[in-house]
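Now for today's protein:

——
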Amino acid sequence: MMNIDTQFDMFSDTPAGKDPDKFSPTHHRYHRQLWSKPLPDGSPFTLADDRPRGYLYHRSMLGEFDLSSDAFSNTYSCADRMSPIRSLVATDMMAEFFTLCSTIGAYVVFPRKMINGKQNINQARGCHPKIRDRIDLTLECIRLHYAGQDSPLSVVLARYSDFFALFQRFDGYVDFFLLNDLVDNGEVRFLLPFEDFQRDGYPGDLAEYQALMRGTMDFVNGRNKRIAAL
């Protein structure tokens, strides 16, 4: 079994004011342990430490992949637009939500390097108004990528098609990164009613924010259980 504490708060060993995605040594170690494993076709996918130049790195006959960590979940604690809604949630509940989203189950890795000066996946999914860093909407875009269909992130995902090809199919990607608690029978389990990307990704009111909170916490708890069982 892996020695991974799924209750560990990544901010606890991150310098004040810094981002755990880059500066938490525990975070880095956990990602390296978790995702250094065989790909769906059996090929070894071993990640090397690439700090301080980068984060994690793989080089083999499969190609070269420069990866970084990304918070797959989002509490919107830094989104000014969401402040009036967040202020309506009990302080202890917000603290519980933020703490859970600071555990390893709330993070994933994506290709880090910008290609031709264009946004990487982390940047694009955070900036696109139809996605707003939502885990369910991001995963739906990835599902559509494997299906050869358009989505708000089609262009950026296509730039990193060599990375997604490592996992062969959507279910291979989901299984590899232990995202199963957000998928039912090959379909993404949306945290809010899905309107085919026709609305802004932000929750629109308190009820939606609370639904997104509950769904996100269920997903992160479920993924942490999968990680703990490895």
Notes: The chain has a mean pLDDT of 95. The first strand starts at residue 37 and ends at 38. Residues 206-228 form the longest helix (23 residues). Residues 10-220 form one domain.
